[in-house]
Amino acid sequence: MESFDEIWEMILEYMKTQVTEVAFNVWLRPLEFVKFENDTIVLSIANFKKKVVEDKFTPLILKACEMTMGFPVNLTILSADSVSDSSPESESTASGLSLNKYEYTFENFIIGPSNRFAHAAAMNVALNPGKAYNPLFIYGHSGLGKTHLLSAIKHEIEKNNPSADIIYTSGEYFTNELVNCLRNQSNYAFHEKYRSCDVLLIDDIQFIAAKEATQEEFFHTFNALTNAGKQVVLTSDRPPKEMLTLEERLRTRFESGLIADVQPPSLETRMAIINKKAEDLGIVLSDDVIDFLADNIKKNVRQLEGAVKKIKAYQDVENARPTVALAKRAIADIINDDQPIPMTIEKIMNEVSRSFNVNPTDLKSDKRNANISQARQVAMYIISEMTNMSLKAIGKEFGGKHYSTVIYSLNEIKDKLSQNVALKATVDDIIKNINEQ
Ligand code: ADP
Ligand code: MG
Is the beta carbon of 143 within 6 A of some atom in ligand 1? Predict the structure, then answer.
């Protein structure tokens, strides 16, 4: 198990690739790790450097922590003058801390129809590295468990074979590392490192798609490893065929093993995940609260988890009871403006009718009057943008229209929106109104 000091070293390693050497040595290297508690990393630095580090490097430190630990954290920087080394509190927390409870393993991954295949494929690869499918390519939208599965593979292989040389990295880190090595003319070390491992796990490989030199390097690494029977697992936010700037030869390679997707979880899976996360955090949620969360966050497990964590935080800090009202507050906190909580269809229909001065029932009719058609298309568009409804379900809301009609309408309105600034402004305004209600 990694101690936090080792994790802090990894965080530093990451930051080193992101700033100049001088900046790193002056501002970041001197940071001392104090403790990690309640999702907050506490660091200290000499008082005269504190403000600069806070002002200039907070985003980088947060990003590096998230990249390394796999979840977002808060940051507190103390002045070193106020931190005494012998403080029993900081000592006990700093030393014994393991990331155990944050580990992404197969055991704490909830399986449902949306991820069963990807989970089985990941498990298979972890149990038979280099022998099952090579590469395994896992793709899906953000927050659906790709990093969790990739990490679980790492842990499982480590457990079964502690001496396996596993590299676990991200497309972004791989790229930065390569750039640094090219700059320092240490390409050889880079080649050696990547081509001699037993297992290469790269998260968010889509990042390399736009970078020519990285693709070239990765292509050779990939070939060397797979030819030697070493396992490669990649995750991406989209399938290879949709990685438009990916070189053809890499696309062919990515598609040559097994491709598995992760989809948004079903209702039952969402409920199981909420239960599990609550249990892990040691809180008890009523069925009402679980239903509410599962109903309102449908597309993103990270957000589901975030909501449960928020509820726990309110409970700890304010002594608040985990009611539906509290859950509402928690959701409002974690879902930012571009990912609104699912709106009721009715609200959208009403707002659109008002704005276009048509009757709400007309939206659901077959009337072809230009203004009504336009309003109907706008309503479909806003619903498709703001909710998780399938095209089929949207069609149903509009008097049982076939989903091909919905696709047609959506394409048409998207065209119009790209050409008609006034219409676009109207639509933005409607969305804003709905968000503010
Ligand atoms: P991605 O890499 O696809 O963006 P992550 O793997 O980082 O998503 O998952 C986001 C959060 O949701 C993580 O904390 C992860 O543990 C959790 N999570 C996702 N899917 C599951 C699942 N099926 N069971 C348990 N936790 C999950
Ligand atoms: Mg991820």
Answer: yes
